[in-house]
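Work Package 4 report. The design task specified in the project plan requires that, given a folded chain encoded as structure tokens, an amino acid be chosen for each position. We show below one input record used in the internal validation round.
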């Protein structure tokens, strides 16, 4: 993680005792060196600072830190165990749905011999589906 991401993570950790979501505006206000908004006359969807926050949260979740940052319309916060499990389950459902759609598209294309999916891609899809199934099984136990 870079310095900006570390500062954001530390800020969220410091605020985690309140168990409340921290808005992007509050993050920008408390970390102006890393997320300046003083010259922006834009809304949330095309704000450079807000885009950096979203990107940094993704980087934090991909890194080796122990905590998970969850997001909602209210903002960001460090997840407790229940929230982390719910967050991960939602991601699995989203990813599995996307894989099912891709598989269905592949099947449709294959009906007309338009494309043949490579064996390596099939292995990746099968491995992913098996792991998702194992993870869901662990969650149910």
């Amino acid at each position: 993680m870079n310095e900006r991401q570390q500062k954001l993570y530390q800020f969220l950790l410091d605020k985690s005792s309140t168990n409340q979501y921290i808005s992007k505006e509050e993050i920008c206000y408390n970390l102006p060196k890393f997320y300046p908004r003083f010259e922006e006359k834009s809304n949330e969807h095309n704000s450079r600072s807000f885009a950096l926050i979203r990107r940094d949260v993704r980087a934090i979740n991909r890194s080796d830190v122990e905590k998970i940052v969850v997001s909602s319309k209210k903002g960001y916060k460090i997840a407790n165990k229940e929230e982390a499990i719910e967050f991960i389950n939602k991601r699995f459902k989203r990813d599995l749905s996307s894989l099912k759609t891709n598989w269905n598209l592949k099947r449709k294309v294959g009906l007309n011999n338009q494309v043949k999916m490579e064996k390596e891609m099939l292995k990746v899809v099968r491995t992913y589906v098996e792991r998702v199934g194992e993870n869901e099984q662990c969650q149910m136990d």
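DSSP finds five helices and two strands in the chain. Validation will be extended to a larger panel in the next phase.
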